[in-house]
Each structure stands twice: as structure tokens, then as C-alpha cells.
């Protein structure tokens, strides 16, 4: 990673370490930790990292932003940082300036559609929208009758929000737009469509999942070196060592897939089949790793990891929840399988070996 | 972070892409000429000496080694590309692969100069085949239980004992083996093993074939009876081979051959399914492609670390552990999906034959080169658990 990426990521890492310590968060049932954390992140310009200075952001590179997301995953932060970054990025595609508050993106599922009506208003329903309830603004991707895409900034107050919760306990809401007039609306750049938004969202979630797995590995290794059973540390039992080795494997696979996809997107000139493979493979493999790796982390922790007091669930449940946003692994696997079959058997290896 | 695993997204540099084209064109020519059939992994005649020589003539053996030994001073990443293209095409690499991957590097490090000058250029020309003599009847995972003795005599050593599971011993010109030169000590049970260069097809070496459940004859029992090895064929430190042998294994552990051995069934499944897959087939194929892509990204990342002069022991073990489990499960997953292939698929029979062979091959994948359990022990040590 380049030096500058490290500086942005280190800033994020330091803020999380100071203000988003998992123990502190777990004890603070009222959620009072959120305001100072968000303030510090905003002061550091992180929520609008991907927005150019001309549009009110801090103009970090895609790669720098991705490294912030990895750090956010390692701390399993439950504030709409990733969502605001994505929303800012989406708005910036159409040169719409971002307001400096919490945002999220709509739609958050590849199956949901928002339409632009003839009068320029927006209609549609989007499910599983992360943090819609706390967001002040929405970045919306919508399409008109001809299928042309537009990007819009919408006041969340103008929409109907039905509250829901993700597996990890974070807001995951249904957003209904009924002829809502956006604050700003502009055509999306040529070639920009909903798939592209979903892929960017999917890579975001992949990095977060990989980060959460790194933390699960770390706390599981640490715990196994502390917990004594049958008069020895459980880390000395071969069966436990092998479980942890498998967790390391899943964590490594997630990390490799997610960072490779982020690197591919950060350096892409166009969204071709190769970038598609990188992005969806990351979402698929990281989701699989969340299931396998999270299961092992809980096994190693025994009953204590199943308690609300323990921090493990902050990582394990969020990693599982993030599988569902921007297309689940089974959704993308079908899409990837279709693409592979369409290209034909002899084009499979050239695709896999393309970089 | 305790673990601090790193898998940086290494990209293959542009010279690799040019090379990949050359390798593909070469393999296409060889396939057209009938040298081998890429759809037939189950061949009796995987030993094709002319093919080895042609690969050598292209400069694709000893690619990373110094020019003075016949090498080409190219990068690990370039070697990586050649290996994966050969593997995916099911090319007959048995005769040269072990020498190129690990025996050559061992000689480079530990052989006396005149032996390097004599042997390495011949490996690079694809003329000679190597075997690895580590395992014995009572010493597999526990390498340090090896008993085959090397007894000091005038000008060299006399070897007595038996090696087993020795791949390619029946066609090999040389073997790099470990023998016991003194008993283990109380303080160090790894002490007392020495690595030797063995010239095969000499008096005192008998090679007995051992059949495999796939129907192939790939590995052997090798019996040594007062076989003489000259002093200058000792490799490295006397009694200290354990360090050498374990670092040698690192070469064996993260390459593309560690997740692509049964890959051909996936290609054939895609062919059989056709361009409009049903949802279940599409999902199954999509997942497998996502997994192989991820494996490859991890493996390329380790190749990048080797290129940078690092010793990624834990990362390489992780790649072998999850890679071999993946290639072991692959034929079974493909078999499940093959149940939905139309009767009319033109390659149906090929797919079925391949599955039959791949399913028979699968059990060995997590054993050769260090078992799953042994690898997880290495990973656990890297995690600070032992
Ligand atoms: C196709 C093939 C080719 C091979 N080619 C070669 C070759 O060219 N040269 C060569 O030297 N060898 C070769 N081998 C041998 C291979 O390296 C050994 O089979 C391997 O090291 C395992 O040893 P083993 O078979 O004696 O099994 P064992 O060591 O007896 O192991 C049996 C089982 O017990 C487990 N086990 C053993 N010890 C432990 C432990 N401490 N903790 C947990 N589990 C343990 C193992 O993981 C395994 O599951 C080849 C093997 C195969 C299958």
C-alpha cells in the first residue's frame, strides 16, 4: 500500500481505537458512544472521503477510502461511515455536492428499483437499506421508462421509512419513495448502472467482513491462550489449534479476495468482466468465510462468546449481516455462473487468469 | 494483530501476459500435434521425454536460476504463469516438474559448484528427472523418524534401508533424499539426518512400483542395499538436514499445482451446461469460480512474496491447506451439478470419465507434500499457539 493510503487509514484506525473500542461500546447500552465517534470521523473528513473537494469532500483516492473500510471492518463500527462514503461517491459520479451529515444509498439490493417519473419525482421501494432511519439524506440511483439512469440527492424526511434491524442489530430499513421531489437530480455518467452501484457496495461489505474476520481471529487466538481447561491452555489442544488454523485460512481468503477486488476497482478503467469477477467473487467468498470463520470463533470461545456481554458478537453477527447487503452471495453466484456459461468453457480460464 | 496475515493484491506484470500468450500457443501446437490430450487427465503415458526437452528449449525450466547454470534469471511470477498454464492444459509435466520446483533450488543452495555446473543445465534443458526421498514405511508426517542409514566409508557413504511413496522414482535420474547419519539426540530429535544427491539406476538401488487406486503407477518403493554415494554428493550440513528439508517443503506448498489438479472437471461442466444454465447450475458454477479465483489471488500473492525474497511459511501453508481441500471437494461438487446436465450434451461422456478419475484422485490431494493436519500444525505455530 502507498504511504498516503496508510495515513488516511491510520487516522481512521486511531479514531476507532480511541472512540469505538468494542468493550466500551458493549457497555454503553444507550448508544452514547455514537455522537463523539461520528464527530471525530467527520472532523477528519472520513465520511466524505470519496467526494472531491469541489463537491464538499476530502478527495481521498478510492484506494485510501477502501483502506478506511478495512479498518472500519476490523472495529465492526456501527455508524453509517461506509454508507455515507458510498453515498458521497455515488453523488460525486453525477457531480452532485454532498451535505455533511449521515447518508445512505438506495437501493441496497440488486432486485429493488427506483423510478424517475415524467415530472422528475422519484418512486419505488427499497428493502434492507442500512441506516436509513438515522440518515438525513439519501443518495438514490433511479432509472426512467427508457432505462436511463439518474443519480439524486433526497431528503430522508420526504420518504416513508419502516424500521428494521439487521442480524448485527444495526438499522436495516424499508424506504418507500412516493413521488418524492429530490433536492438535486442529474443523469448518471454513461455506462453507470445499478449493477455498478451494487458491485461497489458489495466490495465495501467484503472489506468490512474481511476486517471483522481479522478481529475474530485475533480475539479467538488470544482467548485460547488465556482459557485453561483440563489443566492447560486450550490453545495447547491440537483440535483447537486446527480450528484456529482453519479460521486463519478463512480470514486469509476473505482478506485476499476483498483487497484484490478493492485494488481491481481502484485501478479499473472500465467495468469489464474481469472487474465484475473480482467484485462478485469477493462478495461470495467473504460471505462464505463469514459463515465458516464466525462459526469457528464462537466454537473456540465456548459459551462466553454467546453472551451479550462478550464482544465477539459485534464482529460475528455484523459479518453475517453484511452478507445480505448489495446482493447476497447466492444472488451473485447465479449472476457469475450465468456470465461464465455465456462466455463458454474455453473462456473460463482466461477470465480467471486475467490478472 | 497477533496473526498479521498479509495477502497483498499482487498483479502479474505485463511481461507475464506476453509469456502467457507464448505458453498457450506452444501448448495449442503440442495438442494439435497429438503430444497429449488436454481432456484426458488419466493417461498411462504422462512421461513424455520429448515434451520436457521442448519445454526446456523454450527457456521455461530453471526460469529463476542464474544464467551460468543454464537458468534464465526471470521472476517467480513468470515461472508462476508457465506452471499454471501447463497445469490447466493437463500437460505431461511429470518428468521435469519436481526438478524445476524443488530439487534444482535445493542443489543451487547446497550442492558443490562442480555438481551444480554438471546437473543444473541438464535440468534446464529438460533432460533429467528428479525424485524426492523423504518418506519411509514408518516415517511420513513424522519425518524425523526416518531410519534409512548412511554409514561413513572410504570416500563416501553406504546406504541401507527403504524409501516409500517416491513419486517418479521409476523414471528418475536422480533423487534428493534424507538419510540417517547419526541417531537423534535427547535435546533434539531432529538431529542426525543428512541430505544426499542420489544417482539412480546404479548398483544397490531397486525400484518397486506401487499401484494407485486411480489405476496409475506413479509412486514406488525404493530399496537401498549397500548403495555407495561419494562424499561430494552430500548436500549441506551433515546431521542438520531438518532445516533444509523443511524449507524445501515451502516450495512445494503454495503454487498453482496446489489447487488446480482437478480443475479440468469445472471447465468440462461449464461446457456440458451450455450457455443458458438453470439457476442451480449457475449458482454452483458461480461459487466454484469465486472460490478458485480467490485461491489464485492468494497463491499469486505468495508468489509475489517469494519474488520479494520473503519466506511466507504460514501463508504458503494456508494456501496449501485450503487449496488442496478445495481441489479435493471440487469433483464432488461438480458431480452434484452434473446431475442436471442434459442427456444431449456432446461432452457428457468426457465429463463422466473425468469425474470418475478426479474422484479417485481426490483422496491423495490432502496427503502429498504434507497432510492437512501437519499444515494446520504449522499454521498454529505461526499464530503463536505452540
Ligand atoms: C500421491 C502421493 C505422492 C507422494 N510422493 C512422495 C514423494 O515423492 N516423496 C516422498 O518422500 N513422499 C511422497 N509422498 C508421501 C507423503 O509425503 C506422505 O504420505 C505424507 O507425508 C504422510 O505420511 P504417511 O503417509 O506416512 O501418513 P502418516 O504420517 O502415518 O499419517 C496418517 C494420518 O495421521 C495424521 N497424523 C500423523 N501425525 C500427526 C500429528 N502429529 N498430528 C495430527 N495428525 C497426525 C496425518 O495427518 C494423517 O492424516 C506421497 C504421497 C502421495 C499420496
TrEMBL record, chain A:
The keyword Flavoprotein applies. Keywords: FAD, Flavoprotein, Oxidoreductase. It comes from Bradyrhizobium icense. The keyword Membrane does not apply. Its cofactor is FAD. Residues 204-321 form the Acyl-CoA dehydrogenase/oxidase C-terminal domain. InterPro entries: AcylCo_DH-like_C (IPR036250), AcylCo_DH/oxidase_C (IPR009075), AcylCoA_DH/ox_N_sf (IPR037069), AcylCoA_DH/oxidase_NM_dom_sf (IPR009100). GO terms for molecular function: acyl-CoA dehydrogenase activity; flavin adenine dinucleotide binding. It comes from the Bacteria. SUPFAM superfamilies: Acyl-CoA dehydrogenase C-terminal domain-like, Acyl-CoA dehydrogenase NM domain-like. Pfam families: Acyl-CoA_dh_1 (PF00441). Gene3D superfamilies: Acyl-CoA dehydrogenase/oxidase, N-terminal domain, Butyryl-CoA Dehydrogenase, subunit A, domain 3. Belongs to the acyl-CoA dehydrogenase family. This is Acyl-CoA dehydrogenase.
Automatic annotation (TrEMBL), chain B:
InterPro entries: Acyl-CoA_DH_CS (IPR006089), Acyl-CoA_Oxase/DH_mid-dom (IPR006091), Acyl-CoA_Oxase/DH_mid-dom_sf (IPR046373), AcylCo_DH-like_C (IPR036250), AcylCoA_DH/ox_N (IPR013786), AcylCoA_DH/ox_N_sf (IPR037069), AcylCoA_DH/oxidase_NM_dom_sf (IPR009100), Mycobact_Acyl-CoA_DH (IPR052161). Pfam families: Acyl-CoA_dh_M, Acyl-CoA_dh_N. It comes from the Bacteria. Its cofactor is FAD. Residues 15-127 form the Acyl-CoA dehydrogenase/oxidase N-terminal domain. One of its GO terms (molecular function) is acyl-CoA dehydrogenase activity. Keywords: FAD, Flavoprotein, Oxidoreductase. GO terms for cellular component: plasma membrane. Residues 131-226 form the Acyl-CoA oxidase/dehydrogenase middle domain. Transmembrane segments: none annotated. This is Acyl-CoA dehydrogenase. It comes from Bradyrhizobium icense.
Amino acid at each position: 500500500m502507498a504511504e498516503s493510503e496508510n495515513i488516511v487509514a491510520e487516522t481512521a484506525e486511531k479514531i476507532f481505537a480511541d472512540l469505538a473500542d468494542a468493550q466500551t461500546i458493549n457497555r454503553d447500552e444507550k448508544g452514547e458512544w455514537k455522537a463523539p465517534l461520528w464527530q471525530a470521523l467527520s472532523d477528519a473528513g472520513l465520511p466524505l472521503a470519496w467526494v472531491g473537494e469541489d463537491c464538499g469532500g476530502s478527495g481521498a483516492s478510492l484506494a485510501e477510502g477502501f483502506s478506511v473500510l478495512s479498518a472500519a471492518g476490523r472495529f465492526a463500527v456501527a455508524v453509517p461511515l461506509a454508507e455515507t462514503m458510498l453515498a458521497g461517491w455515488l453523488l460525486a459520479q453525477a457531480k452532485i455536492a454532498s451535505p455533511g451529515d449521515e447518508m445512505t444509498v438506495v437501493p441496497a439490493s440488486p432486485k429493488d428499483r427506483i423510478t424517475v417519473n415524467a415530472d422528475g419525482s422519484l418512486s419505488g421501494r427499497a428493502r434492507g437499506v442500512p441506516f436509513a432511519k438515522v440518515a438525513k439524506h439519501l443518495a438514490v440511483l433511479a432509472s426512467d421508462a427508457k432505462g436511463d439512469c439518474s443519480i439524486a440527492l433526497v431528503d430522508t424526511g420526504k420518504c416513508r421509512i419502516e424500521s428494521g434491524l439487521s442480524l448485527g442489530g444495526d438499522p436495516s430499513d424499508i424506504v418507500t419513495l412516493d413521488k418524492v421531489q429530490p433536492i438535486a437530480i442529474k443523469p448518471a455518467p454513461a455506462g453507470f448502472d445499478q449493477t455498478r452501484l451494487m458491485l461497489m457496495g458489495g466490495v465495501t461489505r467484503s472489506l468490512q467482513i474481511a476486517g471483522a474476520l481479522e478481529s475474530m481471529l485475533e480475539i479467538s487466538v488470544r482467548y485460547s491462550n488465556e482459557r485453561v481447561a483440563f489443566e492447560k491452555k486450550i490453545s495447547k489442544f491440537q483440535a483447537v489449534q486446527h480450528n484456529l488454523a482453519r479460521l486463519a485460512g478463512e480470514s486469509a481468503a476473505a482478506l485476499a479476495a476483498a483487497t484484490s477486488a478493492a485494488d481491481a476497482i481502484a485501478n479499473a478503467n472500465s467495468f469489464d468482466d474481469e472487474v465484475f469477477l473480482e467484485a462478485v467473487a469477493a462478495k461470495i467468498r467473504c460471505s462464505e468465510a463469514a459463515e465458516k470463520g464466525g462459526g469457528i470463533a464462537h466454537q473456540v470461545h465456548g459459551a462466553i462468546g454467546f453472551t451479550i456481554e462478550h464482544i465477539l458478537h459485534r464482529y460475528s453477527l455484523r459479518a453475517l449481516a453484511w452478507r445480505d447487503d448489495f446482493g447476497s452471495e447466492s444472488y451473485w453466484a447465479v449472476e457469475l455462473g450465468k456470465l461464465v456459461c455465456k462466455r463458454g468453457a474455453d473462456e473460463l480460464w482466461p477470465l480467471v487468469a486475467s490478472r | 494483530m497477533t496473526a498479521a496475515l498479509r495477502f497483498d493484491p499482487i498483479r502479474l506484470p505485463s511481461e507475464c501476459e506476453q509469456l502467457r500468450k507464448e505458453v498457450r500457443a506452444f501448448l495449442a501446437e503440442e495438442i494439435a500435434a497429438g503430444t497429449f490430450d488436454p481432456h484426458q487427465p488419466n493417461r498411462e503415458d504422462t512421461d513424455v521425454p520429448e515434451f520436457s526437452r521442448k519445454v526446456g528449449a523454450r527457456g521455461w525450466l530453471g526460469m529463476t536460476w542464474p544464467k551460468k547454470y543454464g537458468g534464465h534469471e526471470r521472476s517467480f511470477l513468470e515461472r508462476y504463469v508457465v506452471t499454471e498454464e501447463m497445469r490447466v492444459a493437463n500437460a505431461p509435466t511429470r518428468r521435469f516438474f519436481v526438478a524445476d520446483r524443488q530439487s534444482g533450488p535445493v542443489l543451487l543452495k547446497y550442492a558443490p559448484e562442480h555438481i551444480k555446473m554438471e546437473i543444473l543445465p541438464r535440468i534446464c534443458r529438460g533432460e533429467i528427472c528428479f525424485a524426492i526421498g523423504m518418506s519411509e514405511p514408518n516415517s511420513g508426517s513424522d519425518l524425523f523418524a526416518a531410519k534409512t542409514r548412511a554409514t561413513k566409508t572410504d570416500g563416501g557413504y553406504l546406504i541401507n534401508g527403504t524409501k516409500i511413496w517416491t513419486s517418479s522414482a521409476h523414471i528418475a535420474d536422480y533423487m534428493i533424499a534424507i538419510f540417517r547419519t547419526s541417531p537423534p539426540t535427547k535435546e533434539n530429535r531432529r538431529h542426525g539426518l543428512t541430505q544426499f544427491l542420489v544417482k539412480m539406476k546404479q548398483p544397490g538401488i531397486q525400484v518397486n512400483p506401487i499401484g494407485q487406486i486411480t489405476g496409475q503407477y506413479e509412486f514406488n518403493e525404493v530399496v537401498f542395499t549397500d548403495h555407495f554415494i561419494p562424499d561430494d554428493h552430500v548436500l549441506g550440513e551433515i546431521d542438520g538436514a531438518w532445516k533444509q528439508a523443511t524449507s524445501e517443503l515451502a516450495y512445494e506448498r503454495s503454487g498453482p499445482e496446489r489447487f488446480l489438479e482437478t480443475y479440468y472437471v469445472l471447465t468440462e461442466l461449464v461446457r456440458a451446461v451450455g450457455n443458458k444454465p438453470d439457476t442451480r447450475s449457475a449458482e454452483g458454477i458461480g461459487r466454484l469460480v469465486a472460490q478458485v479465483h480467490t485461491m489464485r489471488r492468494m497463491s499469486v500473492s505468495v508468489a509475489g512474496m517469494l519474488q520479494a525474497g520473503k519466506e511466507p511459511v504460514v501463508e504458503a501453508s494456508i494456501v496449501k491447506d485450503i487449496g488442496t481441500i478445495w481441489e479435493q471437494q471440487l469433483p464432488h461438487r461438480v458431480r452434484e451439478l452434473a446431475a442436471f446436465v442434459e442427456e444431449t450434451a456432446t461432452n457428457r461422456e468426457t465429463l463422466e470419465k473425468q469425474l470418475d478419475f478426479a474422484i479417485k484422485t481426490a483422496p491423495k490431494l490432502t496427503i502429498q507434500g504434507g497432510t492437512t493436519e501437519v499444515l494446520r500444525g504449522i499454521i498454529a505455530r505461526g499464530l503463536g499457539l505452540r
